[in-house]
Automatic annotation (TrEMBL):
This is histidine kinase. Its EC number is 2.7.13.3. It comes from the Bacteria. Residues 224-428 form the Histidine kinase domain. It is an enzyme of class 2 (transferase). It comes from Lysobacter daejeonensis GH1-9.
Length: 433
């Protein structure tokens, strides 16, 4: 995050340098233009004064006199002009400044004593009187070096200002980057002055503290509530198992079985909530060097969830190799399998539930179609089919668990089969047999 500081400083320095270069270029253009305009105005004034004398002499004497300045000459008509001037005027009769050959430079002014007489031209060859052209290279060099000096000064000033501006921002960025969920900020905003960055730092510190408190309360509530629920649920399930051994009517036995299944579903949900509320980092389970075998846990889960298949014409085929494994902690894997297997058993009314491995994924397939309410996003919380007795949270919890531990999970419907699958891993296996 501290890399933001050099980038910010660089942008500020470049902004200063760019603005300075732009201003220097604009004023340089104005300066050069002004020099050329002043020089042209000087020559035009010379021609105007000489033209007034020539017209007065023409009116008095009937002819043109010699110019007072040796660089000037009067041509009685256009045909008398030098060839290089005639060629230019033939293309552009309005030209008043013409660059000739061999460094010559002309300024000319038409003279029209009477409308009936041909136009004469007062021509001044001013190459020896030019001021700008001999010093043009020096002028451009002076402007260039001046612009360079100004840019360097702008970079220095911009760097100094950028450092003062970016230093607190870089410090704040580093502190925010170093924040950890288990270590809320404590007083680090006190080192900032009472300006915008200080206000931002105090706001971030307060926000981080509130978020930490909120997360702590959520985890504690989930953990405590889940632990408090596990004991009565275990008692309910145990009582249901004992009641099933007693002589009951068919209706009573059905009610006890339903109660046992509900208790089992609640236990499964509580276990999932505990897995989500666990304080340890999920990366430890998902990026470890070992992986857990799937088959032993899968077999136990199938036996636990078999109650959902009671009185259903459904068979279960498990075709999972013993070396199939996944990088998940055993409690998380058990919760994941319990939700997926239980969901398949609940929605399978006939046929066969297949549990196998294909393309590096564990697949749990049951006959049926995805309901319209869950087809677009089966992992959406509270999204469930009309026939489902649950609340539509099982698959949502599965997605949250898999997202937290970096496991890809999918729900697909192909050729009359609903398939739930998640990616397996490769690596040494921890046996649970």
């Amino acid at each position: 995050m501290t890399a933001l500081s050099p980038r910010l400083r660089t942008r500020i320095m470049l902004a200063f340098a760019g603005l300075t270069l732009l201003v220097a270029a604009v004023f340089g253009v104005y300066a050069v233009s002004a020099v050329y305009v002043i020089e042209d105005r000087f020559f035009d004034a010379m021609l105007q004064r000489e033209a007034a004398l020539q017209l007065r002499h023409r009116a008095q004497q009937g002819d043109w006199s010699s110019a007072r300045d040796p660089a000037m000459r009067v041509y009685p008509n256009a045909a008398a002009l030098p060839r290089e001037l005639r060629a230019v005027l033939a293309e552009d009769p309005q030209r008043r400044e013409i660059a000739g050959g061999d460094g010559r430079h002309y300024h000319l002014l038409p003279l029209q004593p009477r409308s009936s007489e041909p136009t004469a031209y007062l021509v001044a060859e001013v190459s020896r009187q030019l001021v700008v052209r001999p010093i043009r290279q020096d002028l451009f060099a002076l402007l260039g070096w001046s612009a360079l000096a100004l840019v360097v000064m702008a970079l220095v000033m911009g760097g100094w200002l950028a450092h003062r501006t970016a230093a607190p921002i870089a410090q704040l960025a580093a502190q925010v980057h170093a924040l950890r969920p288990d270590q809320p900020p404590t007083g680090w905003s006190s080192g900032y002055r009472d300006h915008e960055v200080g206000v931002l730092a105090r706001g971030l510190e307060g926000l981080a503290t509130r978020v930490r408190a909120l997360v702590t309360r959520e985890r504690e509530f989930t953990r405590d509530a889940s632990h408090e629920l596990r004991t009565p649920l275990a008692v309910i399930r145990s009582v249901c198992e004992r009641l099933q051994q007693e002589p009951l009517t068919d209706a009573g036995r059905h009610q006890v079985a339903f109660l046992r299944q509900s208790a089992q579903q609640l236990e499964q949900t509580v276990a999932a909530l505990l897995a989500l509320a666990r304080e340890d980092a999920p990366a430890a389970a998902s990026t470890g060097s070992t992986a857990h075998a799937v088959l032993p846990i899968l077999e136990a889960v199938v036996m636990e969830q078999a109650a959902w298949l009671q009185d259903k014409p459904v068979t279960v085929v498990v075709d999972v190799p013993r070396d199939a494994r996944v990088r998940l902690a055993e409690p998380v894997l058990r919760v994941l399998l319990s939700n997926l297997v239980g969901n398949a058993f609940v929605h399978a009314d006939h046929g066969c539930v297949h549990i196998d491995v294909a393309d590096g994924r564990l697949r749990i397939r049951n006959p049926g179609e995805l309901a319209a309410t869950v087809r677009d996003n089966p992992f959406q919380p509270f999204a469930k089919s009309e026939a489902s007795a649950g609340q539509g949270l099982g698959l949502a919890i599965v997605r949250r668990l898999c997202d937290r531990h970096g496991v890809d999970v999918r729900i697909d419907a192909v050729e009359g089969m609903v398939s739930a699958s998640f990616a397996l891993a490769s690596g040494p296996v921890i046996s649970h047999g």
